[in-house]
Every structure is written in structure tokens, then in C-alpha cells.
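Comment thread on ticket #2218

A.B. wrote:
> Attaching the input chain for the structure job we discussed in standup.
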Amino acid sequence: MPCYTWDRNCSISRAPRVSLESLPLKIRSFPTQLFCGLLLTAASLVLGACRAPLYYHPEFNFAGRPTPPSGLLNRVMATYTPSGGTGGAEILDALNDLRRNIQNTIPAWFIGGFSAGQPATIFSFPEQTTGYILSSSDGSLTKVNYSTESATGAAASFGPSPASAAASAIGEFFVGASETNGQVILASGSATYVFSLPNVDKVVTDQGSTVILAMVRNSNSLYRIVQLPATNNPVLPPGYVDCEPLLLPSFCLVPVADKNSAGVAGAAYDHPIGASFSLDGSTVYIDDCGPECGGTTAGITMLQESALVLTNVPTYDPLCGDPGHAACPAGAVSPLTVLPVANPVPIPGGVTASLSDGTTLYLAGQQLQGTGLFAGNLSLLSLSSYTVTSKYSISDGTHTRMIFGDDNTLWIGATQCSNGARAALAAAGNTTQAANYNCLTRFVPNSVAAGGTNAILPTWSANTTYNAGQRVTDGVNVEIVLTAGTSGGSTPTWTTNTNGYTSTNDGSVVWVNVGAVTPVQIIPTVTPNNPTATQANGGTNITVAYPNTDQNQVYYGTLSGICWVQTLHKMYTAYGGQIHAFYTTDGSEINNINITIQGTVLDVAYMDALTNSAN
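C.D. wrote:
> Ran it. Output below, let me know if you need it in another format.
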């Protein structure tokens, strides 16, 4: 009884062959019939247990989530536009890295009933089996049911070309910034409230639906929304900017106090561009963009979250004591978090994105160089001493995405990376990874060069199949596979030359030394100025593995989306308008031939994540 199965762990003893001729045509004995029936039942059970269905999952696989129509357990949703005017959402199988089923009978899976122009942003809440897709053309926000893999209608509308939007995990509030109309738009239940705020370009909310913030382009001001007590005679908060609805207000937009810890008015923020929240829900970290946005000093302003919650309605003007405002009353309290250092905390490396792991605040941004160009940096701020403990060079560009991944990694995405210091080095002929100007960075916190749980890269192994693009450490430097093959039986003599003119032969594998092991990798690894095959020693020039439609061999383009495929050691990205997936173990790229989507890919989200933080 042969075993045919996809499950490599399945084994079965081969039963002795039984010829049909050895059995009578009619079996009249009841015991014999019973025996044969049991034999057939046992055979059926063995075959059924042996054959593992490809898309079978329990009715409730985890956290009470039902099996979706596609039957996939590891789904990545990707939004795309085929022409710019319309757009859709496709589902990818992130376990097998396919946009179709294994049997090739289903060419693709889509979110049923969804269509919108330029679906640029996904707000993904897998814990609630729900997502929301924002159209950057008409401003519609569509709700997606992850269980049924279908759109369930409009959640909100923010008007054409919204500059920013935010959604709460439980769907209580949706907020958008219409910079064109100078409006903050709040959707709550079936009601919509529109507040006037000229040049507003950023809104932020926490996942608990307790804090809603708004920021204004080229400004040092910060605003928040408050909810008034339900009464027939609501008292409007002093210093409010706008309250809605006009006749019986329910919500108001108010400024946030702007004095720094030294009491200087207007110095608490410097061109704020975003915010993140502490894991314990006590602190809001305001990203002060500074020089990168035309300001003076980049930094982080830390505010008490309790001072900013919706139900904390001001009883006095938040800007009291500022020029043109009344003096502060006795007992006035600052929303600033009390720190052992000055607040805000200066971050010379720049800040446009932040993310906390509870002990360290990771800050990505750019710093102006003497050349007049900006260079990307990752700054690590200790949340015990509130000082910058380390700064690393990362990809240039405006950093908008930060996410943790498997293998103790942090991934940072940026946009418009080809005009910074790295691109200038590439143009000048630099052969090091300092001239790699791609938009994605892999960082390994608290890392060691080799060995241990926090190793930056795997170590070399003998008699192992290596694919092009895989990386190992030779103990000192990073070695990347130029030519795929099988490694030799003993450690090769690694070249120490990092100028790209020599390589290391190892069995049938050819390795290229791309420099010293550091916690930072620009993804993908390219060597735009190394010699090609016609120039020297067979060539050591490494290009992108799967070029986008522009056929650029060294630059993928803007990273507009990223998600962590938890426990599978993968990151899926919307990178240069197409799907590119990478292994978290070493940053090497997964062949994207079977996950390529027709059109321009705008964002991605892991629908089956264990937590909302995977997106």
C-alpha cells in the first residue's frame, strides 16, 4: 500500500501484496466479511492520515478566527492599481510564496467587492480580523472582513487626495487630514465631524481609540481632539480651534501646550511629523522632524498620554502664558513627561519615524551633511537614561515604515532614496555598501557578529547548497553568493579584498566580500561599481535579483509598504511598485516570479498575523 503524500514526515510500512485471484469471488462468511470491511476501513484511514491536504485548516485555527474562503493560513493582502484610475486588493499565499494555488486551478485570490482608485494605504488589524483600505484619489476608507475576504462597505470618507488618515483597531474612530481643504475629518459611528485646520497634513491615533492628534505642515504646533460630555448645554473648552456640530457640539479640536521643559513657549515641538506610543500606554513620542522638514532641531517630545485622551477636556487655555494668551491659572499642569534630561530630547541624526521595544526607542531620520545632501540614520535612544546610545548609517530618503521581524530584526523603509548622500557616493564610483542607495534597511539590535541568538548573519557551512544572494559571515566580513552552488567540504580561504576585484571560490559557489559585518544591511545588496564579467576576474558586480518594470539594475525604488509574516522568517514589501519578499535570517530575497502582481503595488498587510504590530 504505497504512501503518496505532501507530508515528508509521513511513513508507513508496505503491506504484503495480496492478489485478487487468491480471494473467492463471493465471501459468504460473516466473520470474513467483517474482517475485510475492517481491513478496507483501516486502509482508508491510513491513506487519509498520510495524505495531508494542502489547504486544510481547522474550523477555528487560532484566536477564534474562522477558515477563510481561500483556505490559506498565511495570507498577505496587497493593494494595487493597474492603470492609476482604478485599484484592487489581491491575496497572496505567503507560506508557499504564490499568487495562485499549488494545483494551479485558481489563478488568483482577490478581496471580493473591493475597487477603489489608488488604494495606497492599508490599516490592518488581524486581531479583529478586519482591515481598512484608503483610496488616495477619492479619500474613501473601505472596511475589509478578513474572515470572508470581502469588502463590507465604506467606513469613512475624507475627500479627494487626503494627506493622511488613521483608524482605531476596534473601529470606533476614523480620522483624516484634508490638506487641500484645511480640514480634520472625524468619523464616529454614523456621524462625521469636520474641523477647520488650515494646512493640516498629519493625523495620528492610538489603537485604543483614546488619543487623536493632528499636525500642520511647516508648523511647530500640535493639536488634539476632545470629546465633550453629553449634555444639552455643553461647555466649550477654553482656547478651542473648532467645535462640531455647531449647534450642539460633541467634539472639539484644541491645541496642545507648546512649552518645553524649560518653560519656553513654542519650543516643545519642531515641525512635528508623526507620533508613536509606548508599550505601557503611558507616553506619546512626538517625532520632531527638524531640519529635514525645514525646521531647526530634530528630536523627540515625550508627552503623558493621560493628558491627551479624548475625555480629558481642558478647563483653561492650553496655550496659557504664551504671547497673546492669558496667564496660566494656579495649578496648571504641563502635558510633558518629566525626564531627567531636557524635554524634547534632541536627536541629531533626524527623526521622521519611531518605534519602541520597551527599553529602546528606535528613531529613523536624516541629517544634513556638509555636501548639502541628507544622509539617513538610525538613532537608538535609551528609555532609562534618555540619551542616544548609538547611531547607524541606514538608507537615505524619508523614513515612513518601521517594523520588527523574526530573527531579532528591525526593518526600516523609506521613500525617494536616490537623491541623498549614498546615491552621490555611487555616482562618484564608490565600491562599498555606503554607495548602496536602496530604500530598505535590515537592522539587528543588540547583535553579535557571529554565533549566538543575536547573530547578525548565519555562519558558513560545509557541503551546503547556497542560492544567489544568500549571505553569511566569514567571522569578519559579509560574504554574499554571486554564483549559486554547493559549498566545499572545508572552510575556504576568504578574500579580504573589499574593492570588488576579487572573489572566493568555494566548491561550486562563488562568494563576494561586501565589507565588515555590521548590524545594518541595505536591502537588497548591490555593488553598482564592481567590475562586470567582461572587466576583471569574471566580474563581481551584484545587481538587484528581480528588477521592476523600469529595469533599474541597482535600485528598486520607493518602499511604500511592509509587513512581517510572523514565524515564517519573511518580510513582504511593496517596493518600487511591485512585491518583493525577503528572509529575515539574512536579508536575501525570495524569488518573486510567482507573487508578482499585474499593476503597481502600493501597500501590503499580513492578514493572519498573531498581533496587530506585524503590520
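A.B. wrote:
> Thanks. Noting for the ticket: Residues 82 and 599 are 4 Å apart (CA to CA).
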